[in-house]
Amino acid sequence: MAPKDVFAMKISEFPESLRPILEEIDNEGDGMLEIHEITEIFQMFAAQKRAAKDGEIALCTLPKELRPTLAVFDVDGDGTVSGTELAIAAKLYHESKKQNKRLMKAVALLLFVLLGLVGAIVGLTATVIEASKETKTDASGITRVAGSDVPASSGSIIVQNSLHDSYALDYTALDATKSLYLQNADGTAEYSYTITGWAKDTNAKNVVFYSARGDTIAVDELGDIIVKDSSDSELLAIPKNGRKLTGFFSALMTSGSFMMMQAGAF
Known about the structure:
alpha+beta
């Protein structure tokens, strides 16, 4: 490229109608067209003329911002983009859009599969946890040992009743009687018995409790209580309107759901 002082033309020497165009070419803005600027004009014109002849676009005639983008499609590197190269570019662009759509579908499918796997893992984990439990609660609210009808735990309650009403009790309640506590009217004598059995006589209309030490406690249908020792000597007589006594019971529920300790005050 020749130095500026070798050849330069004043823009003011050109027709006034051309000056605005030439001022745009004057990169230095000094009102002069140097040799390199004039050369650039002729090169761009020649390139555009050649490209137009072949139906192509000269890259040098395009804005500088677009040149790097379109230069990618200049397959033969001649500084022009032909119709064929533009067609290839359009095809590649179309294919890239289709590829993007396929990728989006693949990502959506993978996400769906991932969510399904997470759900399956959660369900399997819950199933394993449930299967590993040693106890399960059925619809009735009873907790049993897993795989059996055995209650998982037992509880106890205490219920108080009157021993004077023993004759009216059924065999289940009578079987539940395990211990009795009696006291005379003035509180000077107390008796505590472990009950080993009972006998109910409908003819004599009484029920007799047998204690571990041999004493008997008889309760008639009127509710009167007679306590005798093993030699059949009377120890205590308590009419129904006398001092109440206390009895403790133990009962196993026929449902098998839990053990219930029952205590009755007699």
